[in-house]
From TrEMBL:
<dbReference type="InterPro" id="IPR002110">
    <property type="entry name" value="Ankyrin_rpt"/>
</dbReference>
<feature type="repeat" description="ANK">
    <location>
        <begin position="133"/>
        <end position="165"/>
    </location>
</feature>
<dbReference type="Pfam" id="PF12796">
    <property type="entry name" value="Ank_2"/>
</dbReference>
<keyword id="KW-0040">ANK repeat</keyword>
<dbReference type="InterPro" id="IPR036770">
    <property type="entry name" value="Ankyrin_rpt-contain_sf"/>
</dbReference>
<feature type="repeat" description="ANK">
    <location>
        <begin position="99"/>
        <end position="131"/>
    </location>
</feature>
<keyword id="KW-0677">Repeat</keyword>
<protein>
    <recommendedName>
        <fullName>Ankyrin repeat domain-containing protein 39</fullName>
    </recommendedName>
</protein>
Amino acid sequence: MIVASSSTSVKQDYNEYMWTMRKACCDYDGDSTSQTTLPPIAIMSHAHSCKSNNNFALAQTLDEMEFERGIWSAACDGDLMKVQKFLNQGVHPDACDAAGYTPLHYAALKGYINVCQTLLETGADINAVTRAGRATALHRAATNGKEEMVKFLLGKGACVTLQDADGRTALHRAVINRHFNISTLLSHEYPELKSIADDKNKLPTDYDQN
């Protein structure tokens, strides 16, 4: 779960939620496996937009339509065949949507290893950062508790010491969001992370509530 925060990186993820929330609402089964909590305003928009298909269509912006028709939505849904189709048509694996997210950012957030594998094989930058939040795929996987994705990205050479717009590493994010398996993994395999402070001069252990 993403904790309440005024940090830049959390605020910027709001853009993604605004484009994906309608589908997430209609597919919601009461047990969020992504462990990601939408901002209150997004939840209200969810409820409103699911009242009717007509309202849904009217509420779409051009950016939303571009997202849903593009490779980003396919990556977010884990639709490997559709992702491959876009790549075969010449879409760059590092293409950014209007908010500055690449397909890899979406697939890593959701834990779709097969999609990430394909994107990396076709030239995606494993360390690409989001435009404003400066988050990598590793940051997003750690934030969302995707342990197998974290292991996959590390195995593919993701830079573990990169810091986001708040100066936080993947370890900071794992600790803050209480994903203890991931924080233990990162701490043991990369002990140098424990000495990296964020922009508030806090070490990852400073966020440990246990």
